[in-house]
Amino acid sequence: MSADIEHVKCLIIGSGPAGYTAAIYASRADLKPVMYTGLLAGGQLTQTTDVENYPGYPHGIMGPEMMENFRQQAERLGTDIRFGYVSSVDFSSLPHKVVVDERKTITADTVIISTGASAKWLGLDSEQKYSGFGVSACATCDGFFFKGEDVAIVGAGDTAAEEATYLAKLCKKVTMIVRRDEFRASKAMMHRVLNTPNIEILYNTETKEIVGDGQSVTGVTVINNVTNQETTIPVAGFFVAIGHHPNTEIFKGWIHMDETGYIKTTPGSTTTNIEGVFCCGDAQDHIYRQAVTAAGSGCMAAIDAERYLAAKEHVVTA
Ligand code: NDP
Question: Quick check: helix, strand or coil at residue 110?
Fold first, then answer.
């Protein structure tokens, strides 16, 4: 085999909670996993601050620190963790072929996809500046920090509607910023929003800037796109709920996906339509999107990969 082609038993693509948990289980099952971290090593949690809802941390933990712990645990158990991104794959025959950084080819008996998803952002400088300091793309993760305060949320889909009603239970008032004169969310979700007294909806409204005191968010300046009227609303938290996109582009054409690019797995397992390719975490989950659910599915992927290899070995040696 040429020097720039390497064969591995188990290749893990992506390094969020799903990928690291798969790595921990695969290492302990002696699959000698090799992980490529992707460009954002540690995944979405490296871009958050406090994580208070991951079991096992009674006082909470900072997202980047938690992911460093995940990494150290996977490494201690034997995972070969490498910085690099997978640029293309070829799942047409076994073993699977994966190209890393557009130059190195890996052949793999099993591939675990844990490439995650990325939140869509508005693209404002102030949004980036206060990310983790009042700006969040996850109400379930960060809503608690704004208990009893006023917050705003942008978006009009099911996620925004669901997160607004979640926030309304914790916060004094929730202002929903909706860019058109109607919602995209389903009727059932809309019904819940419209029947929650402490949610105020601003239609035809766009976010101009997030205002802060240099440390944290203090308000949001919005503009009505019909009247051009500008208003600054005092809020302590600003939630962005305008959708996510799964990081699955490189698998298009190989793996079955839904219309928005989430990879389809067999319910109750992590198997995909391709033999020996498993998927876990946010790349296949647009509903829960939590670190703990991603970790759980990472564990499932490693067990599925191990059982797949064991069954194959059994057939070969029988
Ligand atoms: P969607 O793509 O459905 O909705 C995104 C929303 O954000 C739209 O209302 C869109 O506005 C708005 N938006 C997009 N860009 C901007 C912007 N730059 N400024 C302001 N607003 C913007 O994403 P969701 O995350 O809501 O949902 C994704 C999928 O997951 C959907 O299929 C949904 O049904 C599903 N889902 C289901 C749930 C459930 O059943 N419990 C819960 C959550 C999600 P516009 O309408 O004007 O385009």
Answer: strand
CA nearest ligand 1 atom 48, residue: 184
CA distance 173 to 258: 35
Residue 183 Cα, ligand 1 centroid: separation in angstroms? 9
In this prediction, residue 317 carries a pLDDT of: 64
160 CA closest ligand 1 atom index: 26
Structural domains of the chain, with CATH: 5-118+244-317 (3.50.50.60), 121-240 (3.50.50.60)
Contact of 194 with 164, CB cutoff 8 Å:
no
> For 123-154, how does the pLDDT look when each residue is reduced to its tens digit (9 = 90+)?
999 999 999 999 999 898 899 999 999 999 99
Report the atom number in ligand 1 closest to the C-alpha of 244.
Answer: 25
Residue 57 CA to ligand 1 center (angstroms) comes to: 32
In this prediction, residue 171 carries a pLDDT of 98
User: What are the catalytic residues?
Assistant: 138, 141-142
Question: What is the model's pLDDT at position 180?
Answer: 98
